[in-house]
Amino acid sequence: MVRDPQWRRPGGEAALASPGSPAPVCDGHGADPGAGRPDEPIISVRGLVNRFGQQTVHDGLDLDVRRGEILGVVGGSGTGKSVLMRSILGLRQPNEGRITVLGEDARSEDPAARQHIERNTGVLFQDGALFSSLTVGENVQVPLKEHHPELPDSWRYELALLKVKLAGLPADAINKLPSQLSGGMRKRAGLARALALDPPLLFLDEPTAGLDPIGAAAFDRLIKTLQEALGLTVFLITHDLDTLYAICDRVAVLADKRVVTVAPLAEVERFDHPWVQDYFHGPRARAARDGQQARGPSPFQTAV
User: Fold this and answer.
1) Is the pTM of this model over 0.85?
2) What's the rounded Cα separation, in Å, for the pair 151 and 131?
3) Which of 286, 102, 105 is nearest to 201 (CA)?
4) Do residues 83 and 92 make contact, with C-beta atoms less than 8 angstroms apart?
5) 244: nearest Cα among 303, 284, 197, 189
6) Helix 136-147 crosses helix 183-194 at what angle (to 10 degrees)?
7) For the chain, which residues make up each domain, given as ranges?
8) Fold of 65-92+102-120+202-304
9) What is the pLDDT of residues 202-256, one digit of tens each?
């Protein structure tokens, strides 16, 4: 079986579903996997070490991701942002360190623990990472077929259509091939697939890369709307300063082979580190900050 990078728990936005839509499907764990103590991190990384031959990318990296937040992850080229994400997801086995995701050991070889993490995390890779020979609907149905083969074809189709619409695509996009979509539409199709199993935890790798400013701003608004409506926790790798200022609650900065700071943007801007000062005090950062100040902070960002 082709293993798709999106493995999620179906459920469904019951309040958003139309009459006759399939009912939410239980993942078999009983309790809501997104639930937990408010003070308990949904992701915890301790002492992470990643090496490629003689090159050490991470050395003693620590990071906590809080439930219900959008965490922006930034850093210079080669700091290992995607390597960190792949380590958390279990797509790469780190050399050292402990990683806990949704209360499970992400490095465990226990099939039940791996399945729990895989069913409850959604991933949008760069440019969507869609299967080129499958339609959008077939792409969205891949994780449903893998984890819930017992679902009737009609239910899978209806669930895929719901996710396509949820991602902001027109209904007729479900029958199109990726090659028939624009770059922005491919990203939305990838997002629909990432949401296929209704995960509480969403990973986004450079979601606005390659989009024009209007398309990028629209995608930012979509992510924020979904995060607030569905109660998602979002781990967002980005270089887009507008995205950081528009939707991120905290920002983690990778430098010197570790996370040098993780805090709200106002605190990160004051952090005394050469890369941080160059990145957050250049002309592009000032433009992004001024634009966000003109729009005003979102209610979520001002809540304590």
Assistant:
1) no
2) 21
3) 102
4) yes
5) 284
6) 20
7) 65-92+102-120+202-304, 130-198
8) Rossmann fold (3.40.50)
9) 999 999 998 999 999 999 999 999 999 999 999 999 999 999 999 999 999 999 9
